[in-house]
Specification:
The protein is an alpha/beta fold. Helices cover 37% and strands 14% of the residues. The chain folds into 2 domains: 2-267 and 438-452, Glycogen Phosphorylase B (Rossmann fold, 3-Layer(aba) Sandwich); 283-429, Glycogen Phosphorylase B (Rossmann fold). An 8-stranded mixed β-sheet has the order 3-4-2-1-5-6-7-8, with helices on both faces. 41% of the residues are buried.
Length: 453
């Protein structure tokens, strides 16, 4: 099969779950004999030759890699301050460019992992050629310009729309920042350039949100931009939703004609399950990820401190991977910083319960699957897509995302730690259905079904 992937790019310039998944999937498909190509939004040339074009780059093993020069801005989590930077592009890919690229790759399936930097003329042209399109719901970009439906008040956006988007994106980074931030030169140093910010630094404060009215001219532009992305999504032939939550959110906004709910995985997920010994005198909790509001860390910390204040002290918390290096104000909480894949076994051996307390409607949670692959029980919020998997083990480990609900659930677990032993035993005795090689085969069948339909 001939497959074209559209994604943000490759490591080390790009990172995160989307990049990890798409890269591992491409490599596995190529190894299985498929002809695989990659197209990604690349550099913007600030001097001459600013026309949009597709250039071939180096190969990734047997995978042909192509870059779109001068794409529309890639906002990542920064939002879109200037809708016209996307709506009114001076240059589009010419029909000759599109024809030449199509004749070079001739895909049967185009697998789209993001709409960021996606030229609409590419999608329209390939569909006219009979190429089937598959879209994986890694996040909500296209429905939410800030990806996760978390608004300027650090709360879940219940009623998105042009007026709300105009206010929420008013203090977003400008187009020049986005172009510079996504240049290949600066991406080499993205870890060093990471700015310790939270949602309040880039957005309108709650007070100003209450009193500032939307700008009608800008609202009209956001209305056009929202329709622009909805039009792209409505052209997709088959949606690959990685959870029931992601499907539910997408179906609120667009018409989904064909869809499959299939948990994702990656090449690092191996069957490393083992029975664990639990010391009820101190249950070793862990949080892995950004310590920002939308990931739920402040909520978890408040719940644990409340437990401590009420005399429930048989716990410790390790915080891994957060951008914020903090001196703990609670001696039971230790901030470990980032970690490498080589250290995963040691880390999970030292965890009794992983907590994933997300406030945003997380489309999946590879961290949850990773923990289960090591036999580690996981407590997830009801907003985490991977709750579909947790339900198969123990639905009592799904919790409403609030301080009080987390407090109550953790109090119950810490007072009866045998539930952790039972969870661990169930993980280890049931069939583990989430290895990456199995997922690759399921994706192949998804492609075939899309072609047939």
């Amino acid at each position: 099969m001939r497959i074209l992937h559209f994604t943000l790019g490759l490591p080390p310039n790009r990172s995160g779950g989307l990049t990890k998944y798409s890269t591992d999937l491409m490599v596995a498909q190529s190894a299985n004999g498929d002809t695989v190509s990659l197209l990604y939004p690349g550099d913007f040339t600030f001097w001459k030759f600013r026309n949009k074009r597709i250039e071939q780059q180096n190969f990734l093993r047997e995978i042909a890699v192509y870059e779109i020069k001068n794409p529309c801005p890639v906002p990542l989590l920064h939002g879109i301050k200037e809708p016209l930077s996307i709506l009114n592009e001076s240059y589009k890919l010419s029909n000759d460019d599109l024809e030449n690229f199509y004749e070079t790759v001739k895909p049967e399936v185009m697998h789209i992992h993001t709409l960021m930097g996606m030229p609409p003329e590419l999608l329209t042209f390939f569909k006219a050629k009979g190429v089937k399109t598959v879209f994986t719901s890694h996040d909500y970009f296209g429905l939410c310009l800030k990806v996760n439906f978390i608004n300027q008040d650090s709360r879940f956006c219940e009623k998105p729309g042009a007026s709300v988007c105009e206010l929420c994106n008013r203090n977003s980074k400008n187009t020049l920042f986005l172009r510079l931030r996504n240049s290949s030169y600066l991406l080499r140093y993205k870890d060093k350039l990471s700015i310790k910010t939270n949602s309040s630094t880039n957005n309108v404060s709650k007070k100003s949100f209450d009193i500032i009215l939307p700008d009608s001219v800008r609202v009209e532009k956001y209305e056009r931009l929202i329709n622009y992305y909805h039009n792209l999504l409505n052209q997709i032939d088959c949606f690959h939703f990685n959870s029931s939550i992601s499907r539910e959110q997408y179906e609120k906004f667009i018409t989904v004609r064909q869809a499959v709910v299939l948990p994702i995985s990656h090449a690092g997920i191996t069957d490393s399950r083992k029975l664990k010994a639990f010391n009820s005198d101190c249950i070793r909790l862990a949080f892995i990820g950004h310590t920002t509001d939308y990931k739920g860390f402040p909520m978890l910390k408040n719940a644990l401190c409340k437990l401590n204040e009420n005399g429930i002290e048989n716990w410790s918390l390790q915080v891994w991977g957060g951008l914020i290096a903090a001196d703990s104000d609670n001696d039971k909480i230790s901030y470990k910083g980032k970690f490498s894949h080589e250290n995963l076994k040691t880390i999970y051996d030292d965890i009794d319960l992983l907590v994933v307390p997300s406030i945003w409607k997380e489309t999946f949670s590879l961290i949850t699957l990773e923990a289960l692959s090591y036999g580690v029980p996981v407590l997830v919020s009801s907003n985490v897509g991977a709750k579909d998997i947790i339900e198969n083990y123990n639905s009592e480990f799904i919790c409403y995302p609030s301080v009080d609900a987390l407090y109550s659930k953790l109090e119950t677990i810490l007072s009866n730690t045998v539930v952790l032993k039972d969870f661990n035993q169930k993980i280890c005795t049931e069939t583990f259905e989430y290895l990456f090689e199995d997922h690759v085969q399921k994706m192949k069948q998804l492609y075939l079904n899309a072609i047939e339909n």
